[in-house]
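Saturday, quiet lab. Running sequence design on the structure tokens for the scaffold JK sent over.
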């Protein structure tokens, strides 16, 4: 790949990690786990994001929901 393949590179390899292949269930309205109250599955590990921006947006959504609940 032009600009990347160089003798100065420390490591040349493909990025092999992918986003989480599983998704923790989450109620579409409350954003909580359907069976575990006050558990808010969120972000990449829970299966609701695939990158930096989508993880941030999902976190913001959950934070807003929790703020609405406690404030
Ligand atoms: C090598 C690599 C390159 C990437 N490049 C890009 C890119 O170029 N563009 C892009 O959009 N995305 C990229 N991503 C994906 C992006 O980094 C993730 O999708 C995003 O960071 C997920 O955010 P998150 O908040 O869901 O999870 P994370 O950022 O993984 O945050 C989870 C947090 O929970 C903490 N934690 C874990 N267990 C516990 C515990 N038991 N108690 C307390 N805290 C705990 C961890 O320490 C961590 O801080 C890349 C990922 C990797 C691995």
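Result came back. Writing it out in full:
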């Amino acid at each position: 790949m032009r600009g990347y393949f160089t003798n100065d590179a420390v490591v040349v390899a493909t990025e092999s990690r992918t986003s989480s292949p599983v998704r923790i269930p989450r109620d579409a309205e409350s954003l909580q786990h359907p069976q575990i109250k006050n558990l808010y599955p969120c972000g990449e590990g829970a299966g609701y994001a695939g990158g930096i921006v989508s993880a941030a947006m999902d976190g913001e959504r959950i934070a807003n929901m929790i703020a609405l609940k406690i404030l």
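Notes for JK: The helical segments are 52-70. The CA atoms of residues 25 and 56 lie 19 Å apart. Ask whether to fix the surface positions before the next round.
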